[in-house]
Design a protein that fits this description.
It contains 3 helices and 4 strands; from the N terminus they run H-E-H-E-E-H-E. The protein is α+β, with helices and mostly antiparallel strands. The protein has a 4-stranded antiparallel β-sheet with strand order 2-3-1-4, covered by helices on one side. Strand 2 (47-53) and strand 3 (56-61) form a beta hairpin. Helix 2 (31-41) crosses helix 3 (69-79). It is globular, with a radius of gyration of 15 Å.
């Protein structure tokens, strides 16, 4: 029982350390744009969280997985001529 509690606490602490990145995306002006980008970005392997709204993509990668801005940009570009113009990180 004690091992199970320690394991659970460890998993929760790792999840708490997951970094959330918000990308500002130029050229995404409507819901259709957001859906097209969501279809490309949110299917990427290694994502814990993926949310797309007009002008923004918010992702969190799974523990131990590093997803670069270049990888996100490549997925966004598959949806059309959109460009990441900035990003911010939060824990």
């Amino acid at each position: 029982m004690k091992k199970a509690l320690i394991f659970t606490a460890l998993l929760m602490s790792q999840a708490a350390l997951a970094e959330t990145v918000t990308y500002n995306v130029e050229g995404m002006h409507c819901g259709s744009c957001a859906k097209a980008i969501q279809a490309q970005v949110c299917k990427m392997d290694g994502l814990e969280k993926c949310e797309v709204s007009v002008g923004k993509v918010v992702i969190s990668s799974k523990t131990g997985i590093n997803i670069s801005q270049d990888q996100i940009q490549a997925a966004i570009s598959k949806a059309g001529e959109y460009k990441i113009t900035g990003s911010s990180k939060a824990k």
